[in-house]
Amino acid sequence: MDQSEIDALLAGGGKPAKKGKAASKAAEADRAPAPPPPPAPPSAPSVRAEPHKDGSGHVISELDTVTSVTERESNKVMDQLDQISRLVSRQQQLITDMMRHEGAQSQGVQKAIHEVMTASKEIQDKVFEAMDLMQFQDITRQKLERIVHHLRQIHDYIVDLLGTGLKSDSERPSISHTIAQTGTTPDENKAHADAVIEAFKTQKKG
Amino acid sequence: MKILIVDDSSTMRRIIINTLSRIGYTDVVEGENGKSGLEKLGQGGVEMIITDWNMPEMDGLEFVKTVRAQNAGIPILMVTTNAAKEDIVEALQAGVNNYVVKPFTPETLKEKIESLLG
Asked: Which residue from A81, A66, A142 is spatially nearest to B103, judged by alpha carbons?
């Protein structure tokens, strides 16, 4: 539920249906004094899609907004990760300098510095892993593009059928009809692609 | 070594650039679709291409075919969500040298790049 939905709910005085753990958590929240609502992100109003007279056009526009907002927000996360990575690199440089320092030559201090360096490298690895995981944004975007493509087909079919209205725009990226199933691991993807490439090469040779 | 990355997702371009810098390739130019990829390629100096498939204006397959018509030798790696066997074969027939399905690991990208440059 986003802030606009929460605001609408509060304005209407209604409550969403809750079940199980969610219900007990909500009951706890109901008993607790209500915290002040968080401020809305400053950029939120600029990215809201304008409502269309046509229903499917509205849905397409909303999905387009979702993809552009997630891409923009993903880039903000990447900026933060880049910054962490730079800070960790700086920290590693300082640790290396510290290890050369005359006062840091005792075995105990050297051992402690090594441990700090190891921890720092682990942080760096985790930052890189987090960056790699951001691939989900592009894959989700392409899945949404596929949904938009199907919605546009339905929209255009109805326009044809009723002989009224406008057909959808055509300037959109081509869509992937064959995105790997959700949950397929990168290793499975690689093994599959490698097997096809190998078979292609063998066939070409033969 | 200058590498051209063509992908309409700025997030994905950053991920690929990060991976490349970790394995020692820092000279990178970017294009956001096949059309801008061709423009960047025309500016010269590119020695390898990493391209997506699904992009607006000019998709990756058309881009690869256009590049191959002018340059038979430049190594091209396609990195895409298209996972079907027919897609991979179509890309290879168009002139792609190797193929990576998203999501990928940095090790996979590294292995593929090194095999293309080796």
From this structure: A142
Q: Which residue of A has its CA nearest to B103?
A: A186
Which residues, at least 6 apart from B5, have a Cβ–Cβ distance to it below 8 Å?
B13, B16, B17, B28, B29, B30, B31, B50, B51
Q: By CB neighbour count within 10 A (0-12 exposed, 13-18 middle, 19+ buried), where does A160 fall?
A: exposed
Look at B104 and A135 and tell me if their CB atoms are within 8 Å. Answer: yes
Inter-residue contact A202 to A178 (CB < 8 Å): no
- Closest Cα in chain A, distance from residue B118 (Å): 17
Range of the domain at A5: 1-40
Asked if residue A29 and residue A58 are part of one domain, the reply reads no
CB-CB neighbors (< 8 A) of A200 in chain B: 88-89, 92
What are the tens digits of pLDDT across the range B59-96? 999 999 999 999 999 999 999 999 899 999 999 999 99
Within this chain, do residues A65 and A141 fall inside the same structural domain, yes or no? yes
Inter-chain CB proximity A186 and B106 less than 8 Å: no
Strand, helix or coil at A177? coil
pLDDT in tens, A27-55: 443 444 444 555 544 444 444 434 445 56
B98 reaches A (C-beta below 8 A) = yes
Dihedral sign for Cα atoms in the order A5, A9, A10, A16: negative
Which residue in B has a C-alpha nearest to residue A199's C-alpha?
Answer: B89
Spatial strand order in the sheet of B28-31: B28-31, B2-6, B46-51, B76-80, B98-101
ipTM above 0.90, yes or no: no
Q: Can you tell me whether residue B50 is helix, strand or coil?
A: strand
> Cα separations (Å) of A177 from A51, A136, A143, A147, B84?
29, 17, 9, 10, 9
Superfamily of segment(s) B2-109? Response regulator (3.40.50.2300)
Please answer yes or no on whether B106 and A128 come within 8 Å at the CB atom.
yes
Q: Could you say which residues from 65 to 84 on chain A have a Cβ atom under 8 Å away from some Cβ of chain B? A: 71, 74-75, 78
Q: Are residues A125 and A28 in the same domain?
A: no
